[in-house]
UniProtKB/TrEMBL annotation:
Name the record gives this protein: Oxidase EvaA
Residue ranges annotated for the dTDP-4-dehydro-6-deoxy-alpha-D-glucopyranose 2,3-dehydratase domain, each copy included: 27-224, 264-460
Gene3D superfamilies per the UniProt record, alphabetical: EvaA sugar 2,3-dehydratase subunit
InterPro entries per record: EvaA-like (IPR005212), EvaA-like_sf (IPR038153)
Native organism: Actinocrispum wychmicini
GO MF entry, a single one: lyase activity
Length: 461
């Protein structure tokens, strides 16, 4: 149903608007764009990848795009003090940008139906622009990136969100992208290309609830949205679900500078408590990893493997290409426990060391794990039992694809568990309760919230 919204409303109004005359049906639009082209994805041996070479590292002949190297890790965080692994090295800072515009007073987001070869559902909603410098400088010799100028020329436009944020730090080394939301004036005309559509935040929220419909790069950008004072309080009357109302109230709580300062001090304490030493090494020198002609894999076929992929995608800037991909051996799970505390919904997050983080440690979800990586229940991380919570406590359970441009069939189950008031939750010292408002302030401050937690937060919009 269409919701009439006062023009003074902000993003909260967009989040409760499920359809407008200007927006297509999100399901049918995605299906039509998916059917408009034929796609081909086939695994090939690493040694058969054109223009890629493997010796001490796996890299492209141009020296651009990305490489796969070996990494040696020593840390006193977690149960494993030392290990080796392959890791993706991509020093380029890409642009992940969404154009937003008020249409009849309601914020609409210009989303792209984009094919990514690693996605379980190949075509998903993506940001308006999702491109590395190698892409938009057209090193691949392909077509130009639509709408790129909106994120490189800002005059006369409002920057809603602009921050460098980390990527998957178990699989990338020091990877970061520029996450942006740029608002254009309501009277500015913009041509909408075939693979693009204006969607409200409410429509995107429903796509997120379904799972595998909004890609990872769009989710990390959407995590920068907040419901703050610009939102008209009258919009609250259209929120019928009690939990969603608590989510909105959590967005507006704990946002003060004093709250942020206290959280940052606690995070610095956590960084000082744990050690992390990483060293880039040759692929040949990785203990327990096998470097073959077809793939790079763990000797026990655990964790993940590096494989080659041949791709045909007529809707992309380049019609055909080949590249390495990281393929997990099992699906991941991320879960947030939340509970009303002191009258407001708060979320339990942990300070987590990950080898690829720029500053060693960031906030992660309550539980972040790959079940296939554990030998038994005794190896599971703290609070993993929340995954067996009663069904009545579960507020979200949806499978989402990770970065389908680098990861093959990397699906993560996103779970939000709402623990009843008064129920005791025992957590280690590196865990802390925070409101969504405080987490949003930290996201907007840089390297404080990891990509897995940001993805969950986006699903709560």
């Amino acid at each position: 149903m269409s919701t009439k919204v006062n023009r003074s409303d902000g993003f909260l109004a967009s989040s409760i608007t499920l359809s407008t005359a200007e927006t297509p049906d999100p399901d049918s639009f995605l299906e039509k764009r998916s059917a408009s082209a034929s796609y081909g994805v086939a695994e090939i041996p690493l040694d058969a990848l054109p223009d890629w070479r493997i010796d001490d590292r796996l890299s492209h002949a141009s020296g651009r795009f990305f490489a796969v190297e070996g990494l040696s890790i020593h840390t006193d965080f977690g149960p494993t003090p030392q290990w080796c692994q392959p890791i993706i090295v991509q020093p380029e800072i890409g642009i992940l940008g969404i154009i937003v515009k008020r249409i009849n007073g309601v914020h609409h987001f210009l989303m792209q139906a984009k094919m990514e070869p690693g996605n379980s559902e190949l075509v998903q909603y993506a940001a308006t622009v999702q491109a590395t410098p190698s892409n938009y400088q057209r090193v691949h010799g392909g077509r130009s990136t639509p709408y790129l100028e909106y994120f490189r020329e800002h005059a006369g436009r409002r920057i809603v969100f602009d921050q460098l944020l980390s990527e998957h730090a178990s699989w990338y080394l020091h990877k970061r992208n520029r996450n942006m939301i740029v608002e254009i004036p309501e009277n500015e005309d913009i041509a909408v290309a075939d693979d693009f559509a204006w969607l409200t935040l409410g429509q995107l929220r429903h796509q997120l609830e379904r799972g595998n419909r909004v890609n990872m790069n769009a989710r990390t950008v959407l995590s920068g949205i907040s419901y703050d004072a610009e939102d008209d309080a009258d919009s609250y009357g259209d929120i019928r679900d009690a939990f969603r109302l608590q989510v909105v109230e959590s967005h507006r709580a704990g946002r003060s500078n004093a709250d942020v300062s206290a959280a940052m001090t606690w995070l610095i304490d956590q960084k000082a408590k744990f050690s992390l030493d990483i060293r880039r090494i040759s692929l040949r020198d990785m203990d327990k990893w096998v470097r073959g002609t077809d793939s790079i894999r763990h000797c026990e076929d655990r964790y993940f493997r590096i494989v080659g992929l041949s791709v045909a995608a007529p809707s992309r800037e380049v019609d055909t290409w080949s590249q390495p991909m990281l393929e997990p051996t099992s699906s991941n799970v991320v879960a947030l426990i939340c509970q009303r505390r002191s009258g407001v919904l708060q979320f339990l997050v942990q300070a987590m060391i990950q080898p690829g983080l720029t500053d060693r440690l960031e906030l992660a979800a309550t539980v972040q794990l790959t079940p296939g990586s554990y030998r038994g229940p005794e190896d599971l991380p703290p609070l993993a039992e929340c995954l067996d919570a009663p069904e009545s406590w579960i507020r979200l359970e949806a499978v989402q694809s990770e970065d389908g441009g680098r990861f093959l069939r990397a699906d993560t189950t996103h779970v939000v568990v709402n623990v009843p008031d008064g129920h005791t939750v025992n957590a280690p010292d590196n865990y802390r309760w925070m409101t969504l408002g405080l987490l949003n302030r930290l996201i907007r401050s840089g390297y404080y919230v990891n990509v897995e937690a940001r993805s969950l937060i986006a699903c709560l919009l």
